[in-house]
Amino acid sequence: MKAAILERYDEALTSEQFVRYTDVEDPRIDGPNDVIVRIGGAGVCRTDLHIVEGIWRSKVEVRLPYIMGHENAGWVEAIGRGVEGVKVGDAVVCHPLVTSGHCLACRRGDDMHATDSKFPGINANGGYAQYLLTGERALIKLPKSLTPKDVAPYTDAGLTAYRATKKASRHLLPGQYAVVIGAGGLGHIGIQVLNALCAAEIIAIDRADAGLALAKECGAHHQVKADGNEVAAIMELTGGNGAEAVIDFVGEGDAIARGLAMTRNGGYYYIVGYGGKIEIPTIDMITSEKTIVGNLVGTYPELVELMALADRGLVNLVTREYPLEQANQALHDLHHGRIKGRAVLVP
User: Fold this and answer.
1) Distances in Å between the alpha carbon of 219 and those of 140, 151, 203?
2) What is the domain range of residue 323?
3) pLDDT reported for residue 170
4) Does residue 81 sit within a domain?
5) How far is CA 334 from CA 44, 112, 127, in A?
6) Within 10 A of 103 (CB to CB), how many other CB atoms are there?
7) What's the number of domains the chain is made of?
8) pTM more than 0.85
9) Helix axis angle, 327-335 relative to 46-53, nearest 10°?
10) Staple partner for 246: which of 26, 32, 179, 336, CB 3.0–4.6 Å?
11) Residues 207, 224: contact at Cβ < 8 Å?
12) Distance (Å, whole) CA 153 – CA 137
């Protein structure tokens, strides 16, 4: 099959070619619950750029060359002898984690912390290819209203945004404020989910005019330019108290300190983006009683819930398609901020 493979790391992200488009061996069914999916769409994520940089080397064991791509959807191509939940030809979206279902975390539905798992595109071959090896437990059959290439980025970008905003929505009341930092690939989904799940006023922050325009399209009630004065702007909008919830899809640079500064006392700061550090004196944690919450993708049931919102038209992805052989162009466009919403590779 054809695939775009990562052969070497590039810490500075200066190479013209991050991945190489070439022929590789087809995946094989080895276990009774294995499923091979013919890829209809593979999302291009900022995490993929972090993988190219080598940031994940200390977190996972993977040998180069391998195939990136952890946001995948397509059609069932082949199944193991024990598979009963899907059949060849079914359109499916893939939860990013493949789990056995036997460990205690799996049985509690806590997929992201399963002790017996693999993560295609992170620590195993992923979906920058024509075919993907996954497991039956990871698959959700798509309704006829949704096509694989249109939903692939939901499996990480959408699911991660959903998990964080769902947590926030549980304590947000009418008349309260939720700030979304970063209105790009994840943020534009988070804004829509907040609108679907709660009645808080939504404030979107982005440094790009295109991001703020997208945020407005997605239902943000206020748009604030990230120009160094965003904390003051948030304070003015919230009557000087700050927001009850701040969801940070950036997680690096000045976004962290400013995100915490615009979180009101007793409020919640949800960190989704990564690359930076959270540094706060313990006395400030005590006196402000702010809660800092980490977010790691999401569970299988949460992906089912997100697909239900998409099926009803309450959440829509903004995507830009690239042929698989143009994976390098998609990665460079993402790196240089030239993509509105999410990029999707289509074999």
Assistant:
1) 28, 20, 10
2) 2-156+318-346
3) 95
4) yes
5) 8, 26, 18
6) 15
7) 2
8) yes
9) 100
10) 179
11) no
12) 19
